[in-house]
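Journal club prep — side note

Before the paper discussion, L.F. wants everyone to see what a predicted structure for a comparable chain looks like in token form. Sequence:
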Amino acid sequence: MPTDPVLVVHGGAWAMPDDMVEAHIQGARNALQAGWRVLDGGGSALDAVEEAVVIMEDDDTFDAGRGSFLNREGRVQLDALIMDGATLRAGGVGCVEHLLNPVRAARKILSESPHVYFVGEGAEKFAAEHGIPLCKNEDLIIPREMERLRKYQQEIARAGRSDDSSSQAGKELFAPEISHDTVGAVGLDRDGNIAAATSTGGTLNKAPGRLGDSSLIGCGCYADNLSAAASTTGWGEPIMKLVLAKWTADRIAAGNLPEWAAQEAMNHLKQRLDGHGGIIVLNRDGQIGIAHNTPRMAWAYRTVKKQEAGIERNAL
């Protein structure tokens, strides 16, 4: 029996300023529209979440693809993961510097490699060998982010602080006042299969080679038809330590509703490690959960009966 499709997307959870709200809502809507076209045409959840994330990677509003935060050396390094709930196959890339759409490379890994994860030059070589063109790192950099990095590094130098992540300055780097525009999508198709994808440029002024949660299975992204599909955003280190996407899916497998599990995930993140972020969750019954413990989170969802997009929802 065919299943009614569902799609949920997010575009970051942080203390988003008022003048950026509309761009985030519109970006989420554009991603939702692209993914929904796939589902409405009978396509797979895997294809739908890929297409939704590509739209946000191409939109320099978000910290994914072009327009991402710059690392300490002024370069863009990108991470992405996509996962199929029907087969548990996944593909991920980390620390890539020459891909406009890392989620495309992640999808190629899922579909055409016995491996799950490639990083750096190896990921880029795999992508090129499978028909994905490489770009210059400069193609991913925009003036806004050059200025943001310059100001942040000036503040560190003026205060005589270290930028090491164990220092107070390092902790401030992950504060919700500094953008966490990681993007993601979860989808359910007419065949009853679910999928998830997450993509990010990481954090501002991060150390070269730093990986966050977004591209790691069970941390920033997870999908299993027996539980749920989930995509997270926010401060990656605490999310990794809690394997938060899998933690949330396990609670849904145990019989909890996605809405409850999403809220509990944010409570767990805050109470256990004083972490902050957001999550979107979807099960095979088409039930969704959207939650965050930051001031704002960009999100949108669509079912055959309803479409909605916004910034503030379930703020704790």
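L.F.'s comment for the group: Residues 6-310 form a domain with the Glutamine Phosphoribosylpyrophosphate, subunit 1, domain 1 fold (CATH 3.60.20.30). Keep this in mind when we get to the figures.
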